[in-house]
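Quarterly update from the structural biology core.
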Amino acid sequence: MADKRKIKTEASSSSSNTNNGRGESVVVDVGRRRSSCGYCKSGSNTSITHGLWAHSLTVHDYQALLDRGWRRSGCFLYKPEMEKTCCPSYTIRLKASDFIPSKEQTRVSKRMQKFLEGSLTSKKPEEQISPSTESHSINISQENKIENYLSNEINSIVIACTQRGEFPNDVNTPKASVKPVAPSKRKVQAEEAHDLLYTSNISFQISASLKRANKTLQKNNQSMDPNPKLISEILSGYFSNLPPTLKLSVKPCNGHINFYSTETQLHIDQNPILSKPLKESSSKGVSVNKQTLEIRIKRSGYDPEEYALYRRYQIKVHHDTPDHVTESSYKRFLVDSPLVFVPTCGDVAGPPCGFGSFHQQYLINGKLVAVGVIDILPKCLSSKYLFWDPDLASLSLGKYSAIQEINWVRENERYCSSLQYYYLGYYIHSCNKMRYKAAYRPSELLCPLRYQWVSFDIAKRLLDRKKYVVLSDYQNKEDLVGDKLLENEIEEEEEEGGSNDVRIDGDEEMCEAGFGDDESDEESGPESTSLTPVEMRKDVSNIVIGLKGMHLKYKDIRQAFAPNGRNYLENQLHKYVTVVGTELSERMIYSLG
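Predicted structure, tokenized:
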């Protein structure tokens, strides 16, 4: 069936998940961080967080950190100081089995179903092309016409990239030439040898032109990395809406732009547990082109096709400048992960893919259209980020992928009874673009003081009054006697928010701020700490200290420090215990180098 979704679980290794292999959590306490806020745009360093740098982190320890209000961006862990930061961020989750889709979420699922059945295009109605004028979906029968068509498409993309500033204006870019790939040469140029039909080496030609021109362009600060691999990723990322009659998909490969046949299906392992087939179309008398949606889940790792899509998304949707969306920033933000991968085998009960950091890929007819960056933990699927094809904005892929992730938790609870929740990151009531998360009902927010979960329906009425609230003081509706019930429904907020398909938690700002240009509070001595007397009396003797390859409890090495150094370290350890909790502070390794 063309409209069945296929699931592929890949256990490919990732260098970003490489650690000491001992299943330990090793962290460095960064302390308080001040940075500008990406939500309220205050213009000063009003965003205040506590940070940890994780060399490695077990999935159980990260689950415990999530349940104390922490979150990760790459290998950097951060927790807002809720009473002091300008925009308090509350961890939000929902129990997947209790999820009740709103009318809008139901419409999104039906819209995707119609699109896959062929009765709906990805464009808005005013942009659709009627059958009588659909000359774009040309009926090409001769190969030289296909080659000319693809060459012209590449030339148009090169011109568009130059106009957008991705290529310098002063460089004379050569004309593209697309050639068929002989069967005898296909194995040399691509892994999917039997599917490769055409290729172009235009990226190498543009690279040569850039190298020749860079000496002049550097004087005007216009030079660009002439790496053919990067150029092919940029150009391939702009390919979209190829005529269905071509039955081709596009992918960069070692600097080449390759065109593959979509008729020859790749051999993949299906896992029907992760998804259910869509219903048959009930349309009659309508000529439709059915499409295939495939969902793959793979270990977190760098993929050039993913990066090309991410680059397009950031530039078109978030209006980032091309020089800001670099390969290194992408890896640091969405590929690097400290989580220790745990395969499901033997006595380890869990989903077929195991526990750790993953990328969930969405492909339509073999073309990558969205990537969800997720962490799969003992109690939850934690959604970190999503990026999608800007040309498919009308499909609301942000909402659609969130529904799929909730369904994934439902289906995989059968493998691990504790895997019940879907974590959506931070909910920021003072930021309108972040309120959409409450549309996934029934949700609950984490109390920032006692770390208890409180129904969102109760929390909302409190947050309407002030930004920071000890939510656990109002566990029941009876605690709100005298409060007028709000008449606005969550679904109205969802439709008014305008950012439902972005699904961004400010992680990008946090990632850059981890060791960036923000300010770090270098506090020393007991007199400068803000800890309460009760917190100051917490025992730090059992914290495991990592020092020069050794792991020792602080009480066993305390006397090795000079008095001044000991006082300073103990002050830092007190703060550390306060933000991570006693149990975690004695389980994770506090690295001193």
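The mean pLDDT is 79.
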